Amino acid sequence: DAKTTQPPSMDCAEGRAANLPCNHSTISGNEYVYWYRQIHSQGPQYIIHGLKNNETNEMASLIITEDRKSSTLILPHATLRDTAVYYCIVRVGGDYKLSFGAGTTVTVRA
Amino acid sequence: DSGVTQTPKHLITATGQRVTLRCSPRSGDLSVYWYQQSLDQGLQFLIQYYNGEERAKGNILERFSAQQFPDLHSELNLSSLELGDSALYFCASSVAPGQGAEGYTFGSGTRLTVV
Which residue of A has its CA nearest to B102? Predict the structure, then answer.
C-alpha cells in the first residue's frame, strides 16, 4: 500500500469549511483514496473514497489532483461534532485490510 | 449503531490470564477484521476472516488467535496477557473482501485493561 502524509493537527472554526490535505505521491494506478474518521476512541467511520474523479456525498467532498499524488477532504460546514482524527488511506481495490497512519487531529472550535 | 456488535465493552483482567472478545458482524456481511489500537501504536490490523476462513494476517502475536463461526460471528482470543496488551480492540465487517470501502463498518470496540 502506498504511504500517505497528513499534517498532525489542524483547527477549524465552526461553520467554516475544513480542508484536510493528504499527500500520496507513490500511489499506484489501481489504488483508491479513502477517508475515515475516528471520534474519541469510537470505531473509525467511513467518510468517502475515490479513484480519479472528485467525489461528494452527504458528509464531505473529496478532491483528487489530476496526477493523483495528493487529495483534499472538504467538510463544507464544520460542526463541533466533526472534531475527530481523520485518516487518509490508499489501498488497492480488492485488497482486504485498511492500513491506518497517524491521521490528522481536527479540532473544530466554536 | 453501526450494526457491528462487540462484547464486552470493557474488560479488566490480570497479567497471565486469557480473555475472549466477541464480534457479530453487520447483517449480510461475510468478512470480519480485527484491529488493535494502543496509545503508542495507532490502529494495527490483526487478522481477517471471510466466511469462516482466515483470509489475511497482520501484526498478530502468537498468543492471540481468532476464528469465525458458521453464524459468521467472530472471536478473538488473547492469552498469557501482558500489560502491553492493554488496548482498544475493534472489529469491522464488510460484505466481501474489497467490496467497496463503504461496506467496511467498525464496531464500537472492546477496551481491554491488563493489570
Answer: A46
- pLDDT(B108) > 90: yes
pLDDT digits 0-9 by tens, A19-34: 999 999 999 988 889 9
From the number of C-beta atoms within 10 Å of its C-beta (0-12, 13-18, 19+), residue A40 rates as: exposed
Map grid coordinates 447483517 to a residue: B27
Q: Find the mean pLDDT for residues B3-16.
A: 97
Does A93 contact B at CB distance below 8 Å?
yes
The strand pair at B110-114 and B10-13 is best described as: parallel
Q: What is the spatial distance between Cα B49 and Cα B33, in angstroms, rounded to a whole number?
A: 6
Please tell me which of the candidates A32, A42, A94 has its beta carbon nearest to residue B108: A42
